[in-house]
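Reading a protein record of the kind used here takes little practice once its layout is understood. The fold follows as a row of integers, each naming the local backbone shape at the matching residue. With these conventions in mind, the following record can be read line by line:

_____
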Amino acid sequence: MRKWMAIGGLVLVTIIWGGGFTASDIALESMTPFQIMTVRFFLAAILMGLISIRSLKGMKKEEIRAGILMGIALFAAFALQIVGLQYTTPSKNAFLTALNVVIVPFIAFLILKKKISPKGILGAVMSVIGVALLSLKGDFSLGLGDGLTLLCAVGFAFQIFFTSEFVKKYRAEVLNFVQMATSFILSLISLFIFQETEFQVTGEGWLGVLYLGVVSTTICYLIQTLCQKYVDETKAAIILSMESVFGTLFSVIILHEILTPRMIAGSLIILAAVVISNLAETAQPQKV
């Protein structure tokens, strides 16, 4: 039962992240990328600290170290994604970021020697094909921005992998607070390095970054961390790829983007990938 509740929780995360694309667009109209990251992770660190205040009193060095690793991976992923977006198209950026789905199981194999199930691989490949149908238009030549975005996908893959491993050993609240605090500190340093310290934010911009900090980051990463205790990293990555489906859905509903047969096909393939991956036998028994 906990496993299926965890899967439902991860699906909820993808729905919220799908809405985050619209919030990011609104915030970017009056804020720079590192301003958004700094404010978003500052809000997340403060809120996560308040939520976890009792647990933080007894933090162990191992928990702090694990949370820092998660935070470095998360910051690197977001930073590379933002910088990469300046040199490539949003569609390529979205597709290449989604390649973390196929990277995660190979990280688990290389580090833990964890067996990759055929159905898990099939699900990962299908999800990439689905995201390609949703995102890609025109030719697919690779440039500097594409290379940076590929590195961003590696960052997200490590964040998912670290989350799956550490949440089985340490407390989710502590891991999340340290993760957000680490991401905030690194974002703040980057803010000064890239001289993005002058804020001229509109009311809509503040609303957009408020959604990103409170809902897309604090709530979603807390849910993700709690749920990955019961869902292995490969399945979690495939389920989280549904973010692109809900991102497309919100674009159609809110931004009045035209729904095409290609979008429908891509969404259905991703949904099928999620179903197939959750029929797969895992290398280690799930906790129930």
